[in-house]
Amino acid sequence: MLNKAAFGKEEIYRIIAEETARNRSSNVWAIYARKSRYDPHNPGYSMEIQPDRSEEYARANGAKEIKYFDDAGRSGKNSNRAGLQRLIFDVKAGKIDVVVFHRLDRVFRNLKSLLEFVQLLQSYNVRFVSVTEQLDTHTWWGRLVMVVLGSLAEAYVWQASDNTREGLAKHRSKGLHLGRIPFGYCNGLCSTCNDENGKGYCPLFGGPDRSESKRGQVAVPHPVDRYAILLIFQWYLSGMSFREIAGLLNNHRMTLPDGSEVLFRPRGKRGTMATVNTFPVRNGETPKRFSRESIRAILENPFYTGQVARYRRPQFSLEDDLEHPERISNPKIEGNSREVLELFPGQHEPLISFETWQAVTALRKGKGSTPARLGRPARIYPLSGVARCWECFEMLGKEFTLRGSLGGKGIIYYRCAYLHDHCLKRQRKRAPRVEGVNPVMNSVDQELAEQHKNLRADKVEAQVDQLISKLIVPREWDDWIAAYYLSKDGMAEFERAGYRHRQELQQIRDLFTAGHIALPEFERRTRILQEKLNSLKPASRSDAGNLINEIHPFSEVWRKLTNIEKRQLLDMIFAGLYFDREGRLIRADAYEPFRQLLNLPDDGMLVES
Amino acid sequence: MEIEKLSPAEQQRVVRFAKELAEVFRRIKKDTEKLQAENTPDKIKKKEMAEDVK
Fold first, then answer.
1. I need a labelling partner for A289 at 20 to 30 A (CA). Which of A123, A364, A557, B18 fits?
2. Mapped to the 3 state alphabet, what secondary structure does A204-257 carry?
3. What ipTM was reported for this prediction?
4. Do A484 and B19 touch (CB under 8 A)?
């Protein structure tokens, strides 16, 4: 315990400086752990061992406060990792003094990024410690070892990439499928079938395994889906488009050769739009749909002819951007990624003849592939993606978006996507019958079609403008907006600048509480530090100009926005804006905290329906 | 409404909102500067002279 009478003013300042420096030097340690292959059901021990070892080291070296950062299931080849990005943010904000990890390859398997990361830490006076290698990057020897070990870590991913490629090539040459089994086939393991389309759909579900599948090695034709493949190829040859085929499969039941009726269910990623009311919805999940793209992918795939194809694949890439991982682009494929480079005879049974596939390919390539709108500037509709159809929501309980479109007289409208896709009175082409597989045509929902009207964009958008003009941006947010206006790092940069002052402020408070300094001195020092902290607030900076005055009221800012900017902001603020057939805004579902700021009711209802 | 007191998801939303608004202000400033550069007295005079010649 210090006695304030025993110390002069200079002595007190010295104590404060020393305390601050000591706190800065070794107080806060960050532990980072990573594992690329991580299964939550079988996690193993790596993600426990890494932080445990690092923590032992940190405690043994005098760490008082420890922060944990981890990335389970993330590769070390680039910086696109949430845990690493949080660590970088805290380093920049001056909240970390030492970064510790179990092994060098846990941080990066990319030498260039590793060196950049070390440089970043050094520029913020943060120490970098590897528990296993015991590296000291401040010495030439430590740096040399780090570069060698970093190169070895990088070599591992190159080697893994090469091995995978060779393995895939061997698999392909044996005539076995790669990746997910295409629609129309299954793995034949009926006794342990976990296919979402199994129970209640496949007649063989739960039965004995099919011997021709060779214990799931070879794809076998699915007893139901195989007929969908036949229909798709025959319908396309009869002149139907991808969209028309998808529409028929989505909306109509088919009779199979055994007399049973079925509504085909596609595999793969779940669709976002509901089908007709007759489509069975299981467990409240959105049913899947055939789409134009899925039909195209089926027609392009030579797998149905009993062969396995080789396509172009992207080159292995270690592209990285430490501070802006969102800028890392996906590896590009040189040339046409869909072009079949080589065909290998497969072990699976063909569903269609090679001649049929060739005829379909010739027909597909013969059609114009240039979009009719090519070269025209894209029109941006501010409510796209956020505006919803209230009529469909009330009648079907489904959410359908309102699409913007330009009318014949230059008037812009919003139209219901359901109306556009299902209820238009279009003259459909007659679908040919295929080997006893006949479509059972059901009528389109004309009643629902009559419930819709095209909504004039000016009327609809004016209501949104009126709603958004009620938004009051809290004064507490000004600093954050100004921070991002002034710096790409946003508040992290300003928090870093204020860190020392806040630490000093805490020290002064501690000294005062312990009775080492008198009240006038405490008040004087606190005032000085508070002034320094206030001057660091982004909103009060002169280079932020009159930005803060422009934010309030928000309706003035809204008026100056472009359609793209409006759309992006609406997407952040609202989950959905529901308009009825008269174009009235019925309901506005806003995300928190914007709902409070807009003073919207909990259920979002603006009008009694 | 202090950002620190919001839930993580709300904080993330507000940060995105702040970033987007900052971007908007940068764009507005750029547009204003461009407009000012185009309408200097010299350039206005030149435009007027060109119109007179026509």
1. A364
2. CCCCCCCHHHCCCCCCEECCCHHHHHHHHHHHHHCCCCHHHHHHHHHHCEEECC
3. 0.82
4. yes
